[in-house]
Design brief:
CATH architecture: 3-Layer(aba) Sandwich
CATH class: Alpha Beta
Radius of gyration: 17 Å
Largest sheet: 7 strands, parallel
Shape: globular
Structural class: alpha/beta
Oligomer: single chain
Length: 220
Amino acid sequence: MHTIEVPIGYDVLEVNSELARRNREALEKHGITAFNIMGAIGSGKTLLIEKTIERLGKSLRIGAIAGDVIARIDAARFEKYGIPTIGLNTGKECHLDAHLVEHGLGELPLDSLDLLFIENVGNLICPADFELGEHKKVVIVSVSEGDDIVEKHPLIFSVADLIIVNKIDIAEAVNADADKMVKDARLINPRIDVLKMSLKTGEGFDEWISFVKKSCERTG
């Protein structure tokens, strides 16, 4: 009896990449710029999207996909702004994948959107491997996770287009060095853009809004 080894993981990622390519084509056909917002639980992903909707909701038509083990909680936070929102339950999975996002896109009014935020599952490991069809990958971390959080998770930072170091207003209280986190990110990914931010005080938020606007202009 012969044993045949099938590289299942490789095949899954290959299929996912093809689906992601199709998702991106669908988004670009409708002139939509998509952001994949990644980060651990409590880093500030949902609040970042909410505040961005508040700032840009009158000038851009925004939609959202909320991905989580149980997605309705974060989805409800976006729906209160009156934007098209789809919640994607991942069940036991610790990340979104292109197939799930494809279903989400099928339920959104793509002809009526300029900007799409995809909030990934709260995790700094699994989402790094799965393309969704997004135009920008954004990773948000908070100083409350410890200032070694970046160097502990190099893969997700190596694929990101922007890193946000959040909650810098409490850095001293939690004995964290936000500048170290920025330095670690740039050592991992020299081309990366890094913002220090406090969603509570508003520090760094204007720079984020500028990044979003410029990304939309380039896609459009």
